[in-house]
Amino acid sequence: MLVTGNDILVPARAGKYGVGSFNTNNMEITQAIIHTAERLRSPVMVQMSEGAIKYGGQDLANIVIDLAERATVPVALHLDHGSSYESALKAIKMGFTSVMIDASHHQFAENIQETRRVVEAAHAMGISVEAELGRLGGIEEHIVVDEKDAFLTDPEEAVQFVEQTGTDYLAIAIGTSHGAYKGKGRPFIDHERIEKIEKLLSIPLVAHGSSGVPAEIVQRFRDCGGEIGDAFGIADEDLQRATQHGIAKVNVDTDLRLAMTVGVREILKNSPKEFDPRKIMGPAREVMSKIVEHKLGVLGSVGKA
Ligand SMILES: O=C(COP(=O)(O)O)N(O)CCCCO
Ligand code: NA
Ligand SMILES: [Zn+2]
């Protein structure tokens, strides 16, 4: 069933498990996410970035909404990294049941102002809101945040921010970053910081940049002609530990991008005569489903629906 973000994340925080929030850009990715969650009796969130909305529009949103409505587990449709009040409201009009307003690149006061506007409007329509305080490293789709500007979330500031905005859940910067290159080896996750924030805030916390970038997928990507450098993601045990300390929503995009591409590349490489779209996208859907299954296992959400 299609529900709001709060319907999924409040129980997750209380139950000390994480809920995967997976980015989608087409039907097969959406199916891999929702069908796997159903099979494993897991709540799940499907998210679309502004780039995905530009790419697939209401057509793609309707695929997600229809699968979510018919799903036998709770599913929310979430706007990822909404960059403005207008963008958040447009998403709600499209049928989204959770929206992020990412004003984390602004000064503290502006972030509060922008976030509060969205919270008031979204709450008036019964929609949940995610906001962000602190900056991840890596490339946030519309912002390049280089190392020196990336700063981790201050626990005391987070308390003020939540009190003054009313946001339902909060994305915190705790060492993760977007993309396939999260560190020179295992990225440093500031568990002390997470545990400080956990004690001060009772709302669900959000970890962005939570792809694991599994070595096996990276190797398969290279073996079928993909070019990728020294790719590292967040370690399963770091993610698992974070879900025991307040992290309830866990954003994953890169792993599904890599998985879909591996599926397609392997077919095109090994079956050069193949040009049936179902034979090309079907195996890619399988590779993605396995990635979703692994992630739900790490997050502890299996059987929670
Ligand atoms: O936090 C994430 C996902 O991060 P990751 O790149 O680790 O999958 N997102 O918000 C997805 C969009 C960012 C570009 O990938
Ligand atoms: Na988000
Ligand atoms: Zn993100």
TrEMBL record:
Could you tell me the superkingdom of the organism this chain comes from? Bacteria
Q: Is DNA damage found in the keyword set?
A: no
An example of a Pfam family matching this protein is: F_bP_aldolase
Q: What are the TM regions of this chain, as residue ranges?
A: none
Gene3D superfamilies in UniProt: Aldolase class I
Which cofactors does the annotated protein need, by name?
Answer: Zn(2+)
Q: Which UniProt keywords apply?
A: Lyase, Metal-binding, Zinc
Task: Give the protein's recorded name.
Answer: Fructose-1,6-bisphosphate aldolase, class II
